[in-house]
Design brief:
Blueprint (H helix, E strand, L loop, with lengths): L6 H21 L11 H22 L2 H14 L5 H17 L2 H4 L3 H26 L2 E6 L2 E9 L2 E7 L3 H7 L1 H22 L1 H6 L2 H27 L5 H18 L7 H4 L3 H13 L2 E3 L6 E4 H13 L17 H15 L7
Antiparallel strand pairs: 1-2, 2-3, 4-5
Helix pairs in contact: 1-2, 2-11, 3-13, 6-8, 8-10, 10-11
Length: 347
Amino acid sequence: MLSQLDAHALRNGVIAAILLTAAIFLGSGGMRHFDPALIAYASASIFALFGLVYRYSVWLQRPPTRLYWRRGWQLFLRPARLPGNLLWLIRLFLRSFVFQTFIEKRSHLRWTAHFLISWGCILAALVTFPLVFGWVRFDPAPYDPTAYRAFFFGIHAGTFPATSLIGWMVFHVLDYCAIAIIIGMGFALRRRLYDRGAMTTQQFGMDFLPLILLFSVCVTGLMLTASSMWMRGHSYSFLALLHAFSVIVTLLYLPFGKFFHIFQRPANLGVQFYKKEGRETEQAKCRRCGEEYASRIHVEDLKRVLDELGLNQQMEDGIHYQEVCPVCRRKLSAVNQLDAIGGPGFL
């Protein structure tokens, strides 16, 4: 079984897991501020990071992905264009990640669902992981038992009354995230149940299971709040175990299911730089009709990738298949089919 694992990706995954373990140890003050009750969450997080880095490393080794990755960095880091690239990167980040306008072009309903789910998960992760790892903690103020002191990596970040609006917002931020995610999942589920296009392509493991996992995490988390605030702690221990189980399963699912696209998506920024370079540089002309059909850099890189994959598309007349435009390719396909059945040749 171990012989089937990718050695390079396995090394990267182990290094990432070791670095996170070290960060937990150092960030929690030598484990002084680490809550032992959260050991299962931390262990699942370390394993999830190992799996994510392993799969990402394997993904980057694929010839097309590797080419886009390298080209993206080469184009971005060119000294002469670096200032402009930085500004364009900020614009891309705002458009693709903050406002996610690329989804709004497909459907307003789809954008609403994706926006609520993604930002609910992002904010929840930014709060949860530092708390689990002991990087952030809240201690009662020694001079005021109703106030809390917030520490970030052991540094005092501020003090606030527990009963104030700030205190309420801080201690219930995960509840707000859960509500936003549940609303977003409602829109997403409606689309998956009634949109005919989605119904024809969706799969349980890739489309419904992620929603079920997120729903279980959100509902059990909200039930913990309900138990402590309105049920006098009734069934709190059971709900805590149920919530822990749902969170850990979700973390372990991260590297293997649809959630992995969350970590693939940033690589799209490099693709955008690649496309921009293609639009601004020389265009490739079809060897048969002479029409422009793609960027020269894209055609040459595609020929290189195909060679790496062992796919020889060099034709008998010396023309590479990728040097022919899509229209002429369809004509060639028709000609070959006519030749195969003994029909007239290419006119």
